[in-house]
Every structure is written in structure tokens, then in C-alpha cells.
Amino acid sequence: MSFITIAGGMKGYLAAPASPNGAGIVVIQEIFGVNAVMRKIADDLAGQGYAALVPDLFWRLEPGVDLTDKTEAEWKKALDLMNRFDVTKGVEDIQAAITLLRGRAKKVGAVGYCLGGLLAYLAAARTDADASVSYYGVNIPAFLGEAASIRKPLMLHIAAEDGFVPKAAQEQMIAGLNDNPNVTLHRYDGVDHAFARPGGQHYNQAAADLANSRTADFLRRNLA
Question: What parts of the chain have a pLDDT lower than 50?
Fold first, then answer.
């Protein structure tokens, strides 16, 4: 497990599997950078046989961001980075990470959380990822015009009580994506944003376990 250079000035955390299954996954960060939560997700995926890479998508703003969700100051910095983040360049960086993993894997997927959930959706529309998973992606309704470009499997996990994604936005997402046969949506009643972040304020183990089991099955089916 180490940091590697992906392209240009961008680095990423690579978790290499002891017993490779022939597939790779780009893990797309939340607004807190390549922190312990994201590295643990990559390590867990490596334990399942995937080559897992977490690109440092904030590198153009500030390389090496590693924040938690525990203090007001860290939240303030994370939200400032998100507000200044260039989504288009971020998706290009995800493609660079996918391309690098293709040197190690036959198929490459993407899994993203929060801001990374939006980017996983856009990866499904704009990159050559073989499958993508979005956890509580923010601002997806603004990009529903790209839904027709999704031609590979995409799974979305939606928190019914998401404080960052109001019910009206959730309904827009469902209405805008229901007709695409490549898209699977799951909505989890009674849970808030980041319900799958261990140790987070809104962590819900039952919902997280269900979402993660669905993700694991989805990735096995589509990256085999």
C-alpha cells in the first residue's frame, strides 16, 4: 500500500491485492481528500482481490489533503475545496486513474462517495469505466442531461433523509434515470448523508451493510 504518481502532478493511494482477481477499482474521494476512510475502503477492496486506487483529486487546489469530519475547521476547509473544485477536470483525472489501472486489470470500475458519488455518476457517463457505484452523490440532478451517455452498469445508493440531497432532487434523479436499463437505484429509508462512513455522525450499520453487500455483488458481476 503506497502513494504513486498517476499523471502530471497527481498522486494516488494504491492498495495492491495479495491475490489479484484481475479487476481494478478507482475509489473516488469525499470532500475530505485521500483520508483514512478512503484508504481503508481501498485496503478492503484489495482484500477482495481488486487493485484499488484513490486519486488525489484536489491536487490542483492543494495536494495531499487529508481531513476528517470531526472538527468545524476541517469541515470549513473541505467545503471550501469542494466549492472551488473543477468537476470536469476531476472526471479527466478519474479517467487517468482508470487508464493506469488498465495496465494491471482487465476491467476497471469506480466507486465514489458524496462529491465522489457525483463523480462516479459522471464517470459512468464520460469515462470508459466498466461499472460505477455512487454513494449519496450530490448535485446529480444538474447533470441528468448526460444520462443517455451511460452505457455501462451504474448503481446509485440514495439516502432518503439526505441533508444535502432534498427529496425533490431525489425524485428528479429517479425520474431521470429510471428508463436507463444500465442504471440500478436503491433508496434507504430513514438514513442521512454519509450513512456508510464508519465513525461518522450519520453512520447506520444496517444500511451500510446492505449497500456494501449490494456493491460487492454488483462489482463481482460486472468486473469479472
Answer: none
